[in-house]
Amino acid sequence: MSSTNGNVTSGDGAIHEELPALKGLPANLTFNDLIARNKRNSAFLGFVMIVLITLFGSSIGVIVVAWRESANDEGIQMPLIVSGILFGGALGLVVAAIAAIWSWYGGSNAILRMTGSKPLEKKDDPQLFNVVEELSIAAGIPMPGVYMIDDPGLNAFATGRDPEHAAVAITAGLRSALTRDELAGVMAHEISHIRHYDIRLSMLMATLAGIIVFASDVGSRAAFYGMVFGGGRRGGGGRSGGSGGSGGANPLVIVIIVLAVIFAIIAPLCGMLVRFAMSRQREFLADAGAVELTRYPDGLVSALKKLGSCRQPLRHVGKSTAPMFIVNPMKAAVSKGRHDASTAFSTHPALSERIQRIQALGSG
Fold this sequence. Notes:
By secondary structure, the protein is an alpha+beta fold. It has one domain (31-363). 63% of the residues lie in helices and 9% in strands. It is built from ten helices and seven strands. Helix 1 runs parallel beside helix 6, helix 3 packs across helix 5 (180-195) and helix 5 (180-195) packs across helix 8.
């Protein structure tokens, strides 16, 4: 076998495209290696999200204490700050737990409604049902519900809380654009999300990120009113009692509120970055799982190329559901062909890197 201009000539004289080395990964990469690595990375990111929401709750607790005590002539006492930190962090965890319970029982149905997914019966599309059934058997999980999204865009996703309560959805545009091998690759990718419990994790991460964004808005408003009204009350008290004749709030109050506001601004961004990083890790894992199930990487590669060439964004999709799809469905990515853009703000890894990894696994 010889190599010329980046191509490889095999013994039969055929010329094949030479695959570049997979950046940052060993040449003897296996399915189990990739799955184990992605699970470790995902577990770490999940832990980071829990820590983030706990710290954010603590910051809200400090803001509330600072606001309530800003009119106190004695200033803010450290025991109150500690109690605010502990109570806020505990409250954050409780709210996260409640939201997690909601996502467990009602998240998947909400997502199916938000995306306009309609349930299908086997008579509606026998080939699609046969493909999903075969892959479910190969994966060792119950067959999920099958849904269709009446949209000309090309995309698909999976949702649910576990393999026993799962669903796969595909757009009408993608269904009509794929061959059977390509359809098997896409469905194997979604079945892998179910098999690896990504569906549960993605709903939980979306819920926790949403909590941080919502709480950030509440915290920002509390900080604003604390600075405006709390400082005024502090100054008034000083003038009447003589202990604060110079007016103004306690400098410690201002410092605490400013820091809390800064964190309130940064926390939602951090939450989204963690969620997007999690999404990118799970896409790599699902690609590897799809190759393992089908033993035919070319089907998924060909499907991803068709998905990458589509310029029709989905109609019923938002930022909260975008990371669940097999490729980024947002207009900014689809209409401008930015599927190879890979930044910390990307919901999916670069499509070219995904294809490269799949080919490397298939040739291993």
